[in-house]
Write a structure and sequence with these properties.
Distance between the termini: 17 Å
Strand order of the largest sheet: 1-11-10-9-8-7-5-2
Structural class: alpha/beta
Number of helices: 12
Strand content: 5-15%
Largest sheet: 8 strands, parallel
Oligomer: single chain
């Protein structure tokens, strides 16, 4: 099974140290966040993650986008929202460079870690409804639920998706606000379709929280993967009986500042598999149970890890990878 992350990772900022770095800093050329991206990528690689993120280190999930879209001053809307330049592309390219450097070093060392050859970077967009819910509308639109605001955000995010799609293996859209009932799912569905239509890479939509009551609608969104939290919301396990898409199976609780044991994670994966066996779409897939899992299930944390202590975040990912691999081997034996 593919192991990935939802996105954010604890931010480790590097201050300028040597003379050259201090000169660059005075000239405004020193990037304090490059080390944070490198740390996030290397930690994910060392933990065994397959599809990595750049760590989303430059701000919270809303700030990263609104600070780079025309029409915003801070989180205040002052004009019509438009996409004028790629927002996440530079960091994605840097994350890819770190990943490729690791692959090349691995090759020079006679491929001691052959699994690294299949690693890739994912692109992450904060969804239009979630952005709309987190800003203050002062001009141009009527309020935070104005459909024109949501669709203009979707059009801007579509351009961002098109700008990054050649550099990522998957694009994830984060729409946590949808589980709160604040936004019409019909509006959200049309907005997501604007973003995802005609993209060249698979698209995942991450919605955390309890989604049991809205799942039938989420199942109709124009995405390839639905990603939800199951460790901190066990009720969500019920959706596995009827999900028609691939599932991103959140199996570590990112709200807890403690590390789940390998056995705890395996128990949750086993519980999920037993429910999936009642899903006609899942059981109707060709091949044995392992092929079905590999084609239908993606393993990840419940949510982003930005607020966790660094060692806790790393060890959670490490145990998640160990648990999923042991679980897969045990299923093979059965």
């Amino acid at each position: 099974m593919i192991k990935t992350v939802v996105g954010s990772y604890p931010v480790v900022i590097k201050e300028p140290e040597n003379f050259l770095e201090k000169i660059k800093d005075k000239l405004g050329m020193f990037d304090r966040y490059k080390y944070a991206i490198e740390k996030a990528v290397i930690d994910q690689l060392n933990a065994g993650i397959d599809v990595l993120s750049d760590g989303q280190v430059r701000g919270d999930m809303v700030e990263i986008f609104v600070s780079n879209l025309y029409g915003f001053e801070g989180k205040r809307v002052v004009n019509r929202i438009e996409h004028t330049k790629p927002i996440t592309l530079k960091d994605i390219k840097f994350a890819n460079a770190i990943l490729n450097k690791n692959k090349n070093n691995n090759s020079k060392n006679n491929g001691k870690n052959k699994n690294n050859s299949n690693k890739s970077i994912k692109g992450i967009l904060t969804g239009p409804c979630t952005i709309a819910s987190s800003i203050r509308v002062e001009s141009y639109y009527s309020d935070n639920k104005d459909e024109s605001l949501i669709y203009d955000l979707a059009n801007a995010l579509k351009k961002e998706a098109e700008a990054i799609q050649d550099y990522v293996s998957i694009i994830q859209i984060d729409e946590p606000i949808l589980s709160t009932g604040m936004y019409e799912l019909d509006t959200a569905r049309r907005a997501i379709k604007r973003i995802t239509e005609n993209l060249k890479v698979p698209v995942s939509m991450h919605v955390c929280g309890n989604i049991v009551n809205i799942f039938e609608e989420l199942n109709t969104f124009n995405v390839d993967i639905l990603d939800h939290e199951f460790a901190s919301n066990r009720k969500n396990l019920d959706i596995l009986e009827s999900i028609d898409k691939k599932v991103g199976f959140g199996c570590i609780n990112t709200k807890l500042k403690s590390v789940e044991s390998v056995d705890e994670i395996k128990d949750l994966l086993s519980e999920g598999l037993e429910i999936l066996k009642n899903n006609n779409s899942f059981m109707g897939l060709n091949g044995d149970i392992i092929n079905k899992l590999n084609s239908h299930v993606i393993i990840d944390p419940d949510c982003g890890m930005r607020l966790l202590p660094l060692d806790i975040a790393y060890n959670k990912l490490k145990n998640m990878v160990i648990a999923s691999e042991e679980f897969e081997n045990e299923v093979k034996i059965k």
